[in-house]
Amino acid sequence: MVTREKAASPAEHKPGAPREPIFELEDVTVSYGDKPAVRDVTFDIAKREITALIGPSGCGKSTLIRCLNRMNDLIPAARVEGNVVYHGQDLYRPEVDPVEVRKRIGMVFQKPNPFPKSIYDNIAFGPRVLGMKGDMDEIVERALRHAAVWDEAKDRLKTNAFGMSGGQQQRLCIARCLAVEPDVILMDEPCSALDPISTGKIEDLMIDLKQEYSIVIVTHNMQQAARVSDRTAFFTVTPEARIGTLVEFDDTEIVFTNPKDPRTEAYVTGKVG
Amino acid sequence: MTTRTHFQEELEGLERAALGGLDMVASALDRALETVMNHDIELAGMVVADDDRIDGRYLEVHQGILSLLALQAPVAGDLRLVAALLHVIKHVERMGDQCVNMAKLVPLAGHEPPVDSRMLDLIQRMGIQARQQVIQCGQAFERRDVAMAEDLVRQDDEIDRLNREVFHHALELGDELDRREWAMHMMLVGRNIERIGDNAVDIGEQTAFVVTGLFREFEDASHPQLAPPTA
To answer: CA A137, CA A238: separation in Å to the nearest integer?
Structure first.
């Protein structure tokens, strides 16, 4: 008898297979002032996988990804309730240093944001601040190679990073993130300002990087989520209360072929805006 | 709020075109049966020629699905529907071919073959049963009715039973060469009708796939012991 299970892809993607979590979110609610932006989110993010957060505008996916490296600390009115557990430790314990957190958990933003400095100094900045040991030239080269931008940058390391194309700048930002040897890379719409070729390069890079890093990506591009991610979390927002909630979290293949929740089905097939 | 209305209309149009192919099969089957019953060689030629319409429908739906996949990137339920429609239209095309095969057998049986009324009765009953299944598989798909689709297996058992009866009756038709030859041809006609029934069951399986997201054979000829119980 032919069954879908038998025809499924390799064991690493087997639905329901146990995965080692890097983040465990438990009843996480993030509020700005009194108003929750996203409420009661519970799911695990697995190590060395790409986890995509999708959903309509205002569903709280960007708010949520910012919790994972305490970026929301920078917004005075933001408040995080529930547990965000990273490697078994509560990320929001008072003794945890947010700077150390952001070193371990890097972030790449929608618009490439290099420093107004040379390509070399963009990469060397983090390691210098953190007092990292080792040959700085080596650190810079390794990071640029890792982010697949070395060939384009090696002959102009001392020139201003703003001279690079948008796609190169974004890979530079990924390299800058990798230079401080993080554990997790958070990406908030990393390709939305890029052309399809640059997007393709970043997507290839993400798949290469997941050998060593855990990646969480927020994207509006559902085909991108389908192409790169191992698991997908779909969030939605209620029109009345305007609070984001997690609707469904599953293997990406399931979310895009046979989602369990009719709201996920409606969103991924474009039947609701 | 509903979006992508243009895409949804295109998808619905493809489904209508594919399921409309089943109506074409039903009328081809009617004429193929009439051809056999009346030994109508002229009508046989028309059945063969008209199959071009079913083949044309196949090409039309196939091309439409390719365009939809390339341009609209359907996912989830839409993707399952598109994948199922590819199967449905292939089965439609095959059922059309089986009607052609039936019609082509008629002139081969000679000018005034020694017909046997019991044999013709069996063939007719098989044909009526197959036609019922062709219609039912289309309705089950259109309504996304899994129970109705699964019922096709029960219906198909009747065709299989009649087909065995055709075989046994052919053995009993005597030693005369002309009669034996005609009986052989009728066995082949029966075989083609039996295959039409199988294709209807396969379309039923696609209905279950669209609804549940899991593909399973209703009846597994190679592993009969694994087949789910049927009513």
So the answer is: 51
